[in-house]
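Lab meeting notes turned into a lecture example. A postdoc, R.K., suggested we walk through two folding results consecutively so the class can see how the record format repeats. The first protein's sequence and structure tokens come next.
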Amino acid sequence: MKSSFDKTWDSVYFKKKAINQFPFSDFVSFFFNTFKKNSKLNILEIGCGSGNNLEFLAKLGHNVYGIDASKEIIKIAKKKFLEQNLDGNFTQSEFTKLPYDDNFFDLIIDRASICHTDIQNAKIAINSCNRVLKPGSVMYSTLFTNFNSFKATKIDEGFYKNFVEGFKNIGQLKFYNSFELKELFEKNNFIITKLFLLEKKDMLSTPTDITSEWILHLTKIIK
């Protein structure tokens, strides 16, 4: 099996690019609509980046875990948490090799990380997520759709690199259609409970510039 990690990211992070400072707003809404305030959760983010989504969860008192294959961004995340005196468990590893116990997490976050690898590695990653997630618990995932506008070099069906229009500092990227989502999640013991299309169109551009993501709310099947 080839590596799921695009080493472009280490270079991007070393140059202090593509480092998000704030949590993804839709995930914040999802979290507060899904979980009770008095519950303390074990939460994992795969492809955690600088820990921007985990930071606000740690401040709420949850046990947070972040995994990312980039050595550079894990150093940045650890430093950020240390400076703010926040507890966080950060590990450098690929998300196809999750080093956690079975049935441990109450929530897993994938903020557009799995779509940076090919679909074969994505399936392995989702299977690993299912293993470490508690039965009946939830996963929040976002993936780029096949409706996006861009120019890049095609690697495989829906999979591209060397973007010259539409995306910057992104490395490789897989764009998913709705049928592939079912193949990815439902065959790895997840139920898709919500599927949203988040889309922005620049109506002043010619042709119209489209940025488009799938947002999935998922539940691990109880067997």
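The second example is placed directly after the first for contrast:
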Amino acid sequence: MESRQLFNKQVEQKCLISNQKIDPNISPFIKSRLDIITSAIEYKEFLQLITDQHIQLHGFTVDYLILDGDTLAKEDRRKKQKDVGYCIQGGPDFVNPRITYAICNHRNMWHFGVLTKENNDWHKHNNKPYSFSNSIGLVIAKTLVSIAAKGNKEYKLLDACCGVGTVILEACIAGFKIHGCDINVKAYYNAVRNIEHYKYSANIYHKDIKEHNQKYDAAIIDLPYNLYSKSTDGIAQNIIESTSKLATRLIIVSIAEIEPMIVKAGLKIIDFGIVIKRGKSTLTRKIWVTEKS
């Protein structure tokens, strides 16, 4: 689902070529991005094309990306890294490089470019001070943010039922602008404390979403589970309809079947998926990507 929403295509062989320049840090699944500078089928021509770039830089390093189907032995990969390094004018830095270049072989074609790797600091949120046993996991939260914004960090996001702020934390660390809202006073205070603990900046409101009047590019709704927060079909319908007045794009999460509510709110379903959180109890969540008709 994330691949469809970010790139309008499915990932094949754990690799995807696209003109969309997505920051790997917004996704729990994207491990790196190679900004391709030059490509060639023949290896000698490939090295010459890199040399022809006349790159002059001190403090670089060259990595080798191993993609599915690449069976090149380790010693051969190391040799090719050196080959490429000699095409660059300057001294390498293998400890604290200013820039990381990389090469890879994809479908019998060599590619060379600038490599951006993910930063996995977001895993520290597993130890947030305030949590809720049935709240969504970090991977789902991070994915909801990337899907809602479609990778665009200029989007202004809203977490309409923010709970303890799991989604907000993932938005903040990835560099998105987000607000949160929750009618439950305990959830509100815990969300504020979690945000303050990590020294992030995000506006969080303690109010019914129907009383909120700011506008957003996209909103995420993780509907109450009727466990610690009371929920009925009427409450869920109110949340969906009220949030749809604030944003044109809504990502809705529910443990119940709510498609009739989505349609009633005047929203068009453009994508759908199911995720299962396993633990002491198995909780299946349905995710709808919707936009105003």
